[in-house]
Amino acid sequence: MVGGMTDSPQRFDEVAFPALLRGARTAYAGAIQAALAGAECGDLPRNGSFVLGAIARHGLPLSEIIRQVGVSKQAAGQLVDVLVVRGYLDRFPDPGDRRRMTVTLTERGAAAAAAARTAIEQVDADLAGRVGAQYVAHARTVLGALMTAAQEHAAHDHGDHDHGDHRSAAGRDGGGEAGGG
């Protein structure tokens, strides 16, 4: 290894960032899907592991999690319905405001979140072994800046001109991604 990189690293200078991001997502998604299947949670819907992971890791309000997922309120409601029906979440009226619903992880939801987290950690460790921890840290910085730029662009497009703290909710809540794939 030279400076954390293998002696003959594969070069990706000519590959567009969207293609690299798609390939990276595929690596994580495959590992997460395999881990979920092994934990008998193979019926977790798309974006389900992100929702479960965000609840497990950060205890974020469902509205914030759904905002991060970037789906319509209708699609979010359908996702939560599926997660409840399949036994990943419990849903009940918020004791402080009966108009709001509160969701919590079931035992099955916690197991799915743990399986996804373990898969992510394994991919992260493999990546660090391939390129070195410093390069992984640099990649997180670059991707975080890209996320911040996208959030700023979206806020500008929606007329939200608050130029205060533009870190992601996960960043404001102590760092890291909210959850799984």
What does this structure look like?
The chain contains seven helices and two strands; from the N terminus they run ααααββααα. Helix content is 60%, strand content 8%. The longest helix is centred in the middle third of the chain and has 25 residues, at 107-131. Helix 2 (48-58) packs across helix 5 (107-131). The model is unreliable at 161-181 (pLDDT under 50). It has helices at 17-38, 48-58, 62-69, 73-85, 107-131, 133-157, 169-172; strands at residues 89-94, 97-105. It is globular. It has a two-stranded antiparallel ribbon with strand order 1-2.
Largest sheet: 2 strands, antiparallel
Based on helices, strands and strand pairing, what is the structural class? Answer: mainly alpha
Q: Which consecutive residue ranges, at least 5 long each, have pLDDT under 50? A: 161-181
Radius of gyration: 18 Å
CATH superfamily of the domain at 17-131: Winged helix-like DNA-binding domain superfamily/Winged helix DNA-binding domain
Helix content: 55-70%
Number of strands: 2
What percent of residues are in strands?
Answer: 5-15%
Mean pLDDT: 83
- The succession of helices and strands, N to C, reads HHHHEEHHH
Could you give the order of strands across the largest sheet?
Answer: 1-2
Predict the CATH topology of the domain at 17-131: Arc Repressor Mutant, subunit A
Architecture per CATH nomenclature, i.e. the level-2 architecture of the domain at 17-131: Orthogonal Bundle
Give the overall form. globular
C-alpha end-to-end distance: 30 Å
CATH first level of the domain at 17-131: Mainly Alpha
Quaternary assembly: single chain
Helix tally equals 7
